[in-house]
Amino acid sequence: MDDPRNAPARRANVVVIGGGNGGLSVAGRLRRAGVTDIVVVEPQTDHYYKPLFSHVAGGTARASQTVRPQADVTPRGVEWVQDAVASVQPDADQVTLGRGKRLQYEHLIVAAGIRQDWDAVPGLPAAMLSPAGASNYLFDLAAKASPLLRDLRRGTVVFVQPPGPASCAGAAQKPMYQACAYWQRAGVLADIRVVLLVPDPTIFGIPAIDAELDRMIAEYGIEVHTDARVTEIDAERRSLIFTTGTTGHAQSLDYDALLVEPPQSAPPFIAASGLAGPDSAGFVDVDVRTLRHARFRNVWALGDAAATTNSKSGGALRTQTKVLAQNLVAVLRGREPRARYDGYGVCPFTVSRSTAVFAEFDDERRLTPTLWRTSYRESRLNWIIDRYVFPQVYWHLILQGRA
Ligand SMILES: Cc1cc2nc3c(=O)[nH]c(=O)nc-3n(C[C@H](O)[C@H](O)[C@H](O)COP(=O)(O)OP(=O)(O)OC[C@H]3O[C@@H](n4cnc5c(N)ncnc54)[C@H](O)[C@@H]3O)c2cc1C
């Protein structure tokens, strides 16, 4: 068989690394703006709407509602290459794919998301394979979480939010509130010790949101440990060790069910390709307002893979894709990139099985509600939007670059 490394490189106007939320959405926007010859490199056969994983784990959505074939959601007029990028050679305007094939670009957009580091905590992989372990951060584990939480009638359940960069960090808490509401209605909440381990000094870090969440925590009787990090899990004994505070005081905790959001970090190929910066923790070193690379003028990045200062979320991408597409089109037409990203991000918290709180905020953690002024308060309407409206907007508008 011919070695793909010897084949001449295919040249495209725009190569997008990653066909997730940001990659497809920005490709769709560029196509609609008249840009042609756009190639999206994405290894996965299926595309997931990840915000709904939390509803699956919490028992208010089915796993099948979160997934569609990648081929069906790739915007019309955009070419999908099913492969993974192994490395980028930014000085040669080239990417090398996993099977050795090369692609040359006029402009490159990095939208490769964030990596889930399941091996970062000793014992975590074994815990996830055991009957008592689950997570809303992976399709299969979210489906496993739903019956695990539903069938619990007594004992201890532990929810873990990790330190460090994360995709919608607060999502660790969503199935917890939904499960508590379920146990409350079933009359068993008093028999279940619910423990939440969070890495920060408060539950979220914005006073108005902390107040809403703390009210729910008090109502459900959740035991919260702040400044906490899990250092070790023993799946066989169903116990874990976690430390708290600056002293690193260690405590052990036995559990009957464990829901973990994994530690996360930048995909390694970014730093290995020279696209990270000295302070970007391995994420793509972009101007946080224009989303253009700090050194390579034809490289751009957005979403979870970019070293922007916002909270990483799909909501942030609704603004970022617009800004990046406008700026790239301007550059293609010989103009200056003038659009600016304002650092907007969002974390919708489902706080029961029928209400939600929208934490909408900028990169200085100031509230920036876009739906209505009090969207940060618990409401039924927030829940309807999060559970029913957003998924439809995602599949039909966002992925096509229409919203
Ligand atoms: C459980 C969970 C709940 C969430 N809830 C919410 C929410 O309620 N609201 C909200 O706004 N956001 C939420 N988010 C965050 C949101 O899903 C992400 O911020 C968003 O998906 C980021 O988009 P992205 O394109 O940067 O990355 P992704 O959507 O993760 O896409 C990255 C793509 O790149 C591909 N890729 C990776 N490496 C390579 C490579 N080397 N070569 C080619 N392709 C590659 C991957 O296969 C993937 O398809 C949640 C996330 C999770 C995990």
How would you characterize the overall build of this protein?
The chain is 28% helix and 25% strand. The protein has helices at 21-32, 51-58, 70-73, 124-129, 139-150, 174-186, 207-220, 268-272, 314-332, 380-398; strands at residues 10-17, 38-41, 46-48, 67-69, 78-81, 85-89, 94-97, 102-110, 115-116, 133-134, 155-160, 192-197, 223-225, 228-234, 239-244, 249-254, 257-260, 264-265, 299-301, 345-350, 356-361. It is α/β, with parallel strands linked by helices and 403 residues long. It has ten helices and 21 strands. The strands form six sheets. Strands 1, 2, 5, 6, 7, 8 and 19 form a seven-stranded mixed β-sheet that branches. A five-stranded parallel β-sheet has the order 10-17-11-12-13. Strands 14-15-16 form a three-stranded antiparallel β-sheet. Strand 20 (345-350) and strand 21 (356-361) form a beta hairpin. The longest helix is centred in the last third of the chain and has 19 residues, at 314-332. It folds into two domains: 4-43 and 83-114 and 266-343, FAD/NAD(P)-binding domain (3-Layer(bba) Sandwich); 118-263 and 345-384, FAD/NAD(P)-binding domain (3-Layer(bba) Sandwich), CATH 3.50.50.60. Flavin-adenine dinucleotide binds next to helix 1, helix 2, helix 9 and strand 20. InterPro entries: FAD/NAD-bd_sf (IPR036188), FAD/NAD-binding_dom (IPR023753), Sulphide_quinone_reductase (IPR015904). Residues 13-309 form the FAD/NAD(P)-binding domain. GO terms for molecular function: FAD binding; sulfide:quinone oxidoreductase activity.
